[in-house]
Amino acid sequence: MKKIFLSPGGLEVSVLALGTAQYGTGISEEEAFRQMDLYTERGGNFLDTALVYGDWGCAERGCSERVIGRWLSSRKKSSQVVISTKGCHPPLEDMSESRVNADAVRKDVRLSLKNLGCDRIDLYFLHRDDPKRPVGEILEALEEEVSRGNIRYYGCSNWSLSRVKEAADYAAAHGLQGFSYNQIMFTLAEVDERVPGETQMLVLDREYYQYHKETQLGLMSFMCQAGGYFTKKGVGASGFKKSGTDVSGKKK
């Protein structure tokens, strides 16, 4: 599989990352292991997860991360795979409650390290933003985790362009590493920004894309396949996969 650098001098990863949101919930651990085995056998080396993945179906936080951690331990792959994870997501029962603060960064980073069974996270994203909180406070908390050796690079997800620019200015003025990467929704299909139950997800638009080209800020996209839309099977009128089917459209 082709490898690319996410940003100049940054992480070298396979051009296709493996999303793991359903590991341990919609996708069994056995099937998750099979997928990761197949992906790495084909040259893939980039797994994307988040602390919140699985909270909708597991009693303990970090279901997807723990499945990945057990696979890494079982296959002795820790040094061969790049892991990106995300933290500071609001609780699913109250999405209006912000968790983007220094205390949540510290707690979530440590829990993700434990779940994944690793000493350092390659790429750590803030899953959301809190526009009311100064960017300096947030960046300083992330920088502390870099200094402690807990994370290598950090980035943002679902941050507005104006906030990303503000963060870049603060990092430059204070000699910080700053955001190395941005993870944002983008797909080859025409994007419907009205995600059911979501008000905080942002879509890559032309202005945002141009900013990435000019600054070379690393870019990762999620929902690239629109939840299986391009299979043309198992997709309901809303464009989302029908309940009770896999991505091929077959009944589970």
UniProtKB/TrEMBL annotation:
UniProt GO cellular component terms: cytosol
Signal peptide: none
Keywords, sorted A to Z: Oxidoreductase
Record carries keyword Oxidoreductase: yes
Residue stretches making up the NADP-dependent oxidoreductase domain: 16-233
GO molecular function, one term: oxidoreductase activity
Name of the protein in question: Aldo/keto reductase
Source organism per UniProt: Candidatus Eisenbergiella intestinigallinarum
